[in-house]
């Protein structure tokens, strides 16, 4: 049996996830936690489970705080409605990241991924976990942006480029420009490498929206949708840029 803990502060969501997990006979839920305070106490007093399903935003803080104070050797699958926590999640023993509402096929895929990580002797040390997780680089599939008092989900395939201006990173779509909560350094780590490339300190571009590339007197890229400022490729990035274009 795979001993499992659910960390979720919304009771209906916790019950729904437990029901979904009941369809997997190999899963045994041994604990349900509703807050950071309760989580720290539980992980301090109990044997850590092999698998943890954890929401990120709890009533008294972020679930990251639990594992920063009580490091675990178990694998974590985060469940949340907010995509912008992806980067930090994958630094804390996370092997998958399920966006709510959780679909049955996504849950099944995450459990199968967990099983593939477990050695035959069922023993996994913390260093083994780090090595496995390093192989599972996260990729950002959608971004949550704020428009006035409203929230909007933007799919990354709709984004022509990301750019920084006055210490804020924006994303450009056909429709308009939106501010984001990311830095360009963070985005470099979590965007799909085949699609996105950082051409300079200010811009990350999406290959699907490249309209034209000028090579003289310097490399300049025209995008289908972009801010007024021209997009140039830094001299030290030209070689990597050309390799990315054909890769």
Features:
LytR-like, 5-stranded antiparallel beta sheet, 8 helices, about 250 residues, alpha/beta, phosphoprotein, CheY-like_superfamily, single chain, 5-stranded parallel beta sheet
What is the tally of helical segments?
8
Mean pLDDT: 87
Element-by-element helix/strand order: EHEHEEEHEHEHHEEEEEHEEEEEH
Which value, in Å, is the CA radius of gyration? 21 Å
Poorly predicted sequence stretches spanning 5 or more consecutive residues: 120-136
Q: Biggest β-sheet, characterized?
A: 5 strands, parallel
Which strand order spans the largest sheet, edge to edge or round the barrel? 2-1-3-6-7
Head-to-tail CA distance between termini: 43 Å
Question: In percent, how much strand structure appears in the residues?
Answer: 25-35%
**What level of helicity do the residues show?**
25-40%
Shape: elongated
What is the number of E strands?
Answer: 17
Structural class: alpha/beta
């Amino acid at each position: 049996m795979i001993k499992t803990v659910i960390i979720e502060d919304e009771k209906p969501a916790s019950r729904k996830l437990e029901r979904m997990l009941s369809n997997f006979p190999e899963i045994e839920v041994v604990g349900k936690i509703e807050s950071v305070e309760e989580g720290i106490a539980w992980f301090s007093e109990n044997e850590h489970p092999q698998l943890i399903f954890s929401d990120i935003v709890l009533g008294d803080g972020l679930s990251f705080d639990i594992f920063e104070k009580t490091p675990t050797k178990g694998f974590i699958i985060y469940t949340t409605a907010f995509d912008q926590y992806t980067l930090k999640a994958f630094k804390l023993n996370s092997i998958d990241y399920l966006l709510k509402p959780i679909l049955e096929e996504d849950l099944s895929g995450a459990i199968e991924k967990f099983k593939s990580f477990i050695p035959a002797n069922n023993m996994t040390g913390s260093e083994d976990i780090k090595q496995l997780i390093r192989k599972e680089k996260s990729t950002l599939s959608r971004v949550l942006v704020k428009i006035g008092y409203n929230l909007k989900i933007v799919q990354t395939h709709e984004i022509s480029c990301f750019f920084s201006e006055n210490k804020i990173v924006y994303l450009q779509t056909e429709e308009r420009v939106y501010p984001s909560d990311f830095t360009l350094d963070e985005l470099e780590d979590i965007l799909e490498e085949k699609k996105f490339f950082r051409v300079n300190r200010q811009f990350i571009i999406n290959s699907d929206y490249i309209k034209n590339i000028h090579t003289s007197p310097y490399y300049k890229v025209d995008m289908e949708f972009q801010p007024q400022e021209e997009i140039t490729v830094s001299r030290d990035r030209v070689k990597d840029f050309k390799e990315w274009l054909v890769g």
